[in-house]
Design a protein that fits this description.
The complex is a heterodimer of chains A (about 280) and B (about 475). Chain A has about 280 residues and is an all-alpha fold. About 5% of the residues of chain A have low confidence. Helices cover about 70% and strands about 0% of the residues of chain A. Chain B is of the alpha+beta class and about 475 residues long. Chain B is about 20% helix and about 15% strand. In chain B, helix 4 runs antiparallel to helix 5. The chains are: A mainly alpha (about 280), B alpha+beta (about 475). Chains A and B meet through helix 1, helix 8 and helix 11 of A and loops of B.
């Protein structure tokens, strides 16, 4: 799932020791050229983590107040800021597991006392139809996203994690989300898809000037595949700016999305090497 | 563990063909009682005319390149699409009797399976009946022989999938018991092995209760998956009131061509890396007594002597994602060169030993590389050695349309706490976790061996509690 913080530090230290670029044949991009896109990405993450804290504050307040309808409305949009920055958010595996683990990460599934975070509350809202068991879960969720924001603002972003993040998001969608398993009680998966694609596209966008220098066709193919997934999701937009439920996704569109996501995952997996990163 | 060799010659370790010829090139295992038994029993085993002819024809020439193909050219080789593939190994026979159960230090064949059961026995008498029945069935299945059906009005005695004369096919069947067998049911609680406990969740685990734990585990290993399935069906058919199947997982190991020069190579896992390079030498009986077998003079209950702890983990591999990971990252994650298996700090093969003392900062082998965390090779970590016996598994397709495959990890050790549990705690948080997800398994205690015709599995346990 993720890298343990202390191990991450070891890896970051190793990167600094080795230098950013350990000379692959491909790399015409100098490590210095990555400084600007990485800094811009850090701003993007800061903006999203700030919004995440605000949204989770409102969401958990509704949960604590027992306002199930309002909490259900806030659930999917609140998650989007987390899903956009998932590749860096999940660098802190303790928080990722506390914020976003699913029932099947736990041996006793929904009944497991260790099951908490967004999906435990989702289960309360849509299945248990009661918030009486999740007051403390809501408190912990808020505390954890506040902690996440704090850690992210202190984190020196490893360039290879940023560049690799685009592929990581595609891998997440391909491996465990395309099936509708992520938001299995609310079926709000299309919101998560949109946010994951936005997060991946942001990285590609920031790196585009460098990528184009290396391989223009690669950049164009990635753009085309992103356009296809955004166009597909657009068909499921509702008038209020949200999304239809996952169940409305046709079998054909699900397969088409899977194919594009797999292609993006294959292509974006070459991004790090292309930019000379370890 | 070493790769299975379906047909191999000139091997430094024991070898089916050499055993059948009665040659003794195994100087390193003379003190290993079980291996000697394997040889004597196998050489006394009936060798099929086809086999004798095949061996006669090929003589002592190294059969390089033939290993992976059971259907090889030989007199009477198949010519039609549905002719059965031909194997020269169906009469391979592993002795059943001995101080330890077979299937632990026995070289790993190509096919393996773990099945976990709930025990339904209601009384101690029923529990004894279960163990005696298992003993009788395993003695038959592993040694082979005719399974007659005298009355056609009745269902056949067995599944018949291997024919009326059951071939041993190198089958071993290894019985182990879970912590739950030592609950209040049979009065065994005071006799629970000291470290036997229910497997706990590690941070990267996503355990599925339907794939975890159990009162009793049976490990099946054989040359073919069919022999394992035959044995499983036989045991299920013979214990309907005593056992209910809880979960099972099958696996396999890719055979490789025999190599005429150099030591044997380890098989590769589904991540493409050699798995088993630094495994302790299972032919070294003294080493196995130290690492694997619980000794009489230990802090374990006396009945447990000759047994061992079995740890099983079903570890899903995210292979699509792995295949999209840069090679140098794959190698840094494992700490080995993918092509050769050599450690990252130098050497030419998997048999070269990394020298971490010369690399304290992890410049060559990252400090969080899998092999470095699993075995830091310090004097202290000597106490944590385990004997691995893994198989690769492939189960179909996930809900997301990805391959559901990975590693059926099995290991044995005399001390579960100092063995698997300590090693896994060191691995918790390793970079490999991004690509793997343990979803099932359990901890079991492998019962001492069945010494002779009068003995039965679990005898020492039940007698100690009588």
């Amino acid at each position: 799932m993720t890298t343990h913080p202390s191990r991450l530090m070891i890896r970051i230290a190793a990167i600094l020791t080795l230098g950013l670029c350990a000379g692959t044949v491909l790399a015409a991009v100098s490590p210095l050229e990555l400084v600007a896109p990485v800094a811009d990405y850090k701003l993007y993450v800061a903006e999203n983590s700030r919004k995440l804290v605000t949204d989770v504050r409102n969401f958990t307040a509704a949960v604590k107040a027992g306002d199930i309808e309002k909490a259900k409305q806030l659930f999917a949009p609140t998650r989007m800021s987390y899903e956009r920055i998932e590749p860096v958010a999940e660098l802190f595996s303790d928080l990722d597991s506390a914020i976003d683990s699913r029932a099947d990460d736990h041996e006793k599934a929904e009944q497991d006392p260790a099951f908490g975070g967004f999906h435990r509350i989702e289960y309360a809202l849509w299945v248990e139809k009661s918030t009486k068991n999740v007051g403390s879960v809501a408190d912990e969720l808020l505390a954890n996203v506040v902690e996440l924001q704090k850690r992210l603002s202190a984190l020196t972003f490893p360039p290879e994690k940023v560049v690799g993040g685009a592929a990581v998001l595609m891998e997440e969608v391909a491996a465990t989300k395309i099936s509708g398993e992520e938001d299995r009680y609310s079926h709000t998966d299309l919101w998560d898809f949109q946010a994951n694609f936005e997060g991946a596209y942001k990285i590609v966008e920031l790196l585009r000037p460098l990528v184009v220098k290396e391989d223009r066709a690669f950049a164009e193919k990635a753009d085309e595949n992103f356009k296809a997934v955004f166009d597909t999701l657009q068909k499921y937009r509702t008038p209020d700016g949200g999304f239809e439920t996952y169940e409305k996704l046709t079998d054909r569109d699900r397969k088409l999305l899977a194919g594009r996501v797999n292609t993006l995952a294959e292509d974006l997996s070459k991004l790090r090497g292309m930019l000379g990163l370890n | 563990m070493r790769s299975p060799r379906l047909l191999a010659a000139s091997m430094p370790r024991w070898d089916w063909n050499e055993m059948h010829w009665g040659e003794t090139s195994m100087s390193d295992s003379n003190d290993d009682r079980q291996r000697n038994e394997i040889r004597s029993s196998a050489s006394g085993a009936p060798t099929s005319p086809e086999r004798r002819q095949l061996l006669g024809t090929l003589g002592g020439v190294a059969l390089v390149g033939l290993a992976a193909k059971p259907a090889m050219a030989s007199p009477g080789a198949p010519t039609q699409v549905t002719d059965a593939p031909v194997s020269a190994l169906t009469q391979d026979r592993i002795p059943f009797h001995g101080p330890h159960q077979a299937g632990v230090t026995t070289p790993r064949p190509a096919a393996g399976m773990i099945a976990s059961f709930f025990v339904l026995a209601e009384t101690r008498e029923d529990l004894e009946r279960l163990f005696r029945t298992l003993t009788a069935r395993i003695a038959f299945l592993t040694q082979g022989g005719p399974q007659l059906d005298p009355d056609p009005k009745l269902p056949p005695a067995g599944s018949g999938i291997l024919g009326p004369i059951v071939p041993p096919d190198a089958l071993t069947v290894t019985v182990s018991v879970g912590a739950s067998l030592f609950d209040g049911r049979y009065g065994l609680a005071p006799l629970r092995p000291k470290h036997l406990q229910q497997m706990q969740r590690h941070p990267n685990d996503a355990l599925d209760a339907a794939l975890c734990h159990g009162d009793l585990s049976i490990q099946f290993c054989a040359n073919t998956p069919d022999a394992n399935i035959h044995a499983l069906r036989d045991i299920i058919k013979n214990t309907p009131d005593l056992l209910v199947l809880h979960w099972k997982q099958e696996g396999s190991v890719p055979p490789i061509p025999a190599s005429s020069d150099g030591p044997p190579e380890s098989a590769r896992n589904f991540l493409g890396f050699r798995d088993g390079s630094a495994n302790p030498d299972s032919a070294d009986a003294a080493l196995m007594d130290r690492i694997v077998w619980v000794q009489t003079a230990s802090d374990e209950p006396a009945w447990a002597a000759g047994g061992t702890y079995q740890a099983v983990r079903i570890i899903r591999n995210f292979v699509e994602r792995w295949d999209r990971t840069p090679l140098q990252e794959q190698e840094a994650i494992f700490g080995r060169v993918k092509a050769t298996g050599a450690p990252l700090d130098g050497g030419r093969s998997e048999h070269d030993v990394p020298d971490y003392a010369k690399d304290p900062q992890g410049a060559r082998t990252p400090l969080d590389a899998h092999i470095r965390l699993a075995n830091p090779r310090t004097p202290k970590s000597e106490a944590n050695l385990i004997l691995r016996r893994p198989f690769n598994y492939s189960n179909g397709v996930t809900k997301s349309g990805q391959l559901e495959m990975g590693l059926l990890f099995i290991c044995y050790q005399a001390d579960l706490e100092r063995g698997f549990i300590t090693v896994q705690k060191r691995l918790d948080g390793e970079p490999l976790e991004e690509y793997i997800k343990p979803i099932g398994g359990g901890f079991f205690y492998t019962l001492p061996g069945v010494r002779d015709e009068q003995d039965w599995l679990g005898r020492t346990l039940l007698q100690a509690s009588a």
